[in-house]
Amino acid sequence: MNFKVLKSKIDFTAEVFGIDARQNISHEQKIQLTKLINEYAVIILKNQKINDDEQIKFSENFGFIEPAGTNTELTKITDRRLSLKMNDVSNLDKNNKPLTKSNQNRIFALGNRLWHTDASFKKIPVTFSILSGRKVSSKGGETEFCDMRCGYKALSNKMKNKVESLIGEHSLQYSRGKLGFIMKDVLTNKELKKFKPVLQPLVRKNYVTDRKSLYLSAHLGLIKDWELADSILFINDLMEICTRPDYIYSHKWEENDLVIWDNTQVMHRGRYFNDQKEIRDVRRTTIAGTEMLIDQ
User: Fold this and answer.
1) Averaged over 39-55, what is the pLDDT?
2) pLDDT digits (tens, 9 = 90+) for 63-95
């Protein structure tokens, strides 16, 4: 196994060669891959023509798989295209047809186009995400990543001291509300309770590399004990720092790309494509975290 770092001003993405995700990987390969993910935060494996079972098995090399979201009844189990071990990040319904423009699931999924960190709204946040491009759009549909380590490093010492002690409140209600998807209007009271904001630190440390990152997301709506307006303005300022062009890698998908990233160190977002005329079938497995970062 070898790799090359993709050219950028900050070099946080690596393309890896010599791995076939359809086959059992050795213990040494697993160690090398995990080390690369921790060091570069985003790694890319090309020409990985895998099926769902193969992706699940490959993903389990990195830990237990976090089940796909079952908090709401927007998508009933009988309407799912994929198993509960797979997150469906496509624009397709159960009949493999593009979701209509007004479909609630489509509108909900448009939240993926906001800068976010997968599942930061869970008490125990996830670690790695593994995304497989089964069918990609001919134009648009890129996935952009920003290096949150650089965002933290760019702060003044005074600001670093400030954010170290701050706690954020994360919920899907915040991110979807930005798109006009008001959950209280479409969800039951029972479902709404599942979206109660959870607490996360604004700074995380990678204990492999000892590098610190800002921990932000579209799901972050409030700073604990702050006024709403102050929270929003402060979060927006941090977002602007972290998403400077120099800190971003944009991945132009090719069919059968397999992209792995560390949610503790990067944010990401999907980009526009014509989802009414094109099919974009990408499928994600997500590795569960092992502990709460803050007592709830």
Assistant:
1) 97
2) 999 998 655 555 667 778 999 999 999 999 999
Nearest alpha-carbon partner for 92 in 81, 77, 107, 104 = 81
Residue 11, phi-psi category: left (phi > 0), alpha (psi -120 to 50), beta (remainder): left
CA distance 286 to 60: 9
Type of residue at 275: D
Look at residue 31 and give its three-state secondary structure.
Answer: helix
DSSP-based three-state secondary structure for 183? helix
Sequence ranges of the domains in the chain: 2-286
Distance CA 196, CA 176 (A): 14
* DSSP H or E segment with residue 262: strand 258-262
Strand, coil or helix: 265: coil
- The β-bridge partners of 249 are 145
Please give the backbone phi and psi of residue 21, each rounded to the nearest 5 degrees, phi first.
-65, -10
pTM, to two decimals: 0.95
Strands 266-270 and 143-147: antiparallel
Count CA atoms within 13 Å of residue 78 on its CB side.
Answer: 0
* 2-286: CATH, from 3.90.79.10, 1.10.10.10, 3.60.130.10, 3.30.505.50: 3.60.130.10
User: Tell me, what DSSP letter sits at residue 5?
Assistant: E
Kindly write down the DSSP assignment for every residue of 86-131, as one continuous string.
SEE-SSB-TTS-BPPTT-HHHHHHGGGGS-B-TTTTSSS---EEEE
| Number of Cβ within a 10 Å radius of residue 136 | 20
What lies within 8 Å, CB to CB, of 37 at 6+ separation is: 43, 128, 260, 261, 262
Contacts for 77 with CB less than 8 Å, ≥ 6 apart: 70
